[in-house]
Amino acid sequence: MDIAQIEARPRQERGSRPCRRLRKQGLVPAVICGHGQPNVLLTVRRASVEDLIAERAMIVQVNWDGEQESAQIKEVQYDALGDDIVHVDFVRISLSEAVTVSVPVEAHGDAVGVEQGGMLELRQHDLEVECLPTAIPEKLRVEVAALDIGEILRVSDIEFPEGVRPTADPEMVVLSIVRPAEVVEEEAEVPPEELAAEPEVIGREAAEAEPEEGAKGAPPAKEGR
Q: Is 134:98 a contact under the CB 8 Å cutoff?
């Protein structure tokens, strides 16, 4: 795989105020650490970091003042709103030592079950693998053409590139072909005698309890003295 490049420059100042000034200039404070070497404070362009993220770059070469270091992007910190990058952590790696990275999964082919009305459900969008930095695949292409409705594909069913080893449980389900849930609306069955019953008249009980004056069966009115 091609290793992405990012240009940096040393940074002397620490603290929130200098870092805010850098961010106003379109720059981001960064640090490269690990591998038994001292931490180095750096500054990188925010646009360059955004490009690395958009390209899903897993391994980068950080260049500054004639120095070159191979590294992974360990962490990208954002502001409280999640809009602006405020800091980047790089961790040194050796191109001759295996690293652990997450690689996107891509389903390939038209599954038999989908053609019969089923739906492909991708349960794992990324899989963690271990390999040399130079052997990291851009994606894991999974063949699904033979899958029927109700069938699943596990980690153990995937053919990984040479030198790439999955770290996940071999029995973990990566995708499946499921039948769409059928929504059945059950109509309430109303007995025929209830359908034919006379609708209730609001106030009937009150009318029967208090018949009008002069009506048959009504008590005679008392004459006033």
A: no
Compute φ and ψ for 150, nearest 5 degrees: 90, -10
Question: Where is pLDDT greater, at 180 or 178?
Answer: 178
Please answer whether residues 47 and 102 qualify as being in contact, where contact means their C-beta atoms are separated by less than 8 angstroms: no
Q: Tell how strand 67-78 and strand 59-64 pair up.
A: antiparallel
Residue 211 confidence (pLDDT) above 80: no
Which residue from 68, 87, 62 is spatially nearest to 77, judged by alpha carbons? 87
CATH pick for 99-178 out of 2.60.40.10, 2.170.120.20, 1.10.357.20, 3.50.50.60: 2.170.120.20
2 close to 62: Cβ distance less than 8 angstroms = no
- Residue intervals of the chain classified under CATH 2.170.120.20 are 99-178
Phi, psi angle pair for 47, to nearest 5°: -60, -35
- pTM here is 0.67
- CA distances to 74, 96, 166, 205 from 70, in Å: 12, 11, 23, 89
Q: How many other CB atoms are there within 10 angstroms of residue 174's CB atom?
A: 23
Q: Where along the chain do the CATH 2.40.240.10 domains lie?
A: 4-92
Q: How confident is the model at residue 204 (pLDDT cuts 50, 70, 90)?
A: very low
CATH fourth-level superfamily of 4-92: Ribosomal Protein L25; Chain P (2.40.240.10)
